[in-house]
Design a protein that fits this description.
The chain is elongated and about 75 Å long. 53% of the residues lie in helices and 12% in strands. The longest helix is centred in the N-terminal third of the chain and has 18 residues. A six-stranded mixed β-sheet has the order 3-2-1-4-5-6, with helices on both faces. It has 294 residues and is α/β, with parallel strands linked by helices. The two termini are 36 Å apart.
């Protein structure tokens, strides 16, 4: 799969056209995004993503928006419904959909948003971020999860993760800022040889201008991010709102309300401040890589 294919966005021309029309109708109704969200019983983030063409617009949601905005013209409603259906069909052509048998809905949603993100800030407590994993490391994690049983399923999942990584080297590269607990460097994923190669890969990745890696050492003690990993996705569109994917004991959850997202932005800033500098982190990663080789 080419880098261009991986970087392609499900935010198609049709999706943006529909979003522009809905924004115009909202503004004509003299409603702010906050007011529209309250009237539609959804979040401001959802309104923002619809207007920026970043998500599928279901016909019931479209109908509710048009009613809220006072768009009663039948011809307009029919035209926008047809546009939504065409945009949704185009959106389903994202490269990740060919792996539907091994990629869960939540992960598919994440990949779609990641394809449109401009920045990713992530804290990881035990695992190397997926965008920085070697094939052998991915394979070891996949086998250990027991979610995929056959060799073919495991290999398909490895290919999905490798395809995602092409965003880091695309013409419009993703900006990745990662804070890793020191435990990430010590966890024997796949054994010493795999871990040594993985840490060497972190050193190579950290030399990229669009990748920043920091290590949060054990010596810093307790910290607010130690309760679980999370990812904060930021988008390039003006006024677009960040989205958070956080892990918890029962699975992953999306957070998009401003107060919740703001909390995770603060958590990441605190983790980044407590962590070693990128230069110091490279020294620690290099030392741990040598220890795995010993």
């Amino acid at each position: 799969m080419s880098a261009n294919a991986t970087a392609s966005s499900p935010s198609t021309v049709l999706g943006r056209q529909l979003g522009d029309e809905l924004r115009r109708l909202r503004e004509a109704a003299a409603l702010t995004t906050t007011q529209a969200a309250e009237a539609l019983d959804c979040t401001k983030g959802k309104i923002s993503r619809i207007e920026n063409g970043r998500v599928t617009v279901r016909i019931p949601d479209l109908t509710a928006m048009l009613l809220t905005y006072g768009a009663m013209d039948a011809e307009l409603r029919d035209r926008l419904s047809l546009l939504a259906r065409k945009a949704n069909r185009r959106r389903r052509q994202g490269w990740w959909n060919q792996y539907g048998s091994v990629v869960a809905d939540t992960y598919r949603d994440y990949i779609a948003l990641e394809a449109m993100a401009g920045t990713i800030r992530t804290f990881q407590a035990q695992l190397v971020p997926g965008l920085l994993q070697t094939p052998e490391y991915i394979r070891a994690v996949t086998v250990a999860s027991h979610q995929w049983q056959t060799a073919d399923e495991i290999e398909q999942f490895v290919q999905v993760r490798l395809a995602r990584q092409e965003r880091l080297a695309s013409d419009s590269p993703l900006q990745l800022r990662a804070v890793l607990s020191e435990a990430v460097l010590l966890q024997q994923v796949g054994g010493p040889k795999v871990m040594s190669a993985q840490l060497e890969q972190l050193l190579i990745a950290s030399a990229r201008p669009n990748v920043t890696i920091q290590v949060l050492p054990f010596s810093r003690g307790a910290h607010a991010s130690m309760f679980g990993p999370y990812v904060v996705l930021g988008f390039p569109e003006e006024a677009a709102l960040d989205v958070v994917l956080a892990d918890n004991p029962t699975g992953s959850m999306w957070l998009e309300r401003e107060a919740e997202v703001g909390r995770y932005q603060e958590l990441f800033d605190a983790a980044r401040t407590s962590a070693l500098s990128p230069v110091e982190s490279r020294t620690v990663i290099r030392r741990r890589a040598k220890e795995h080789r010993a």
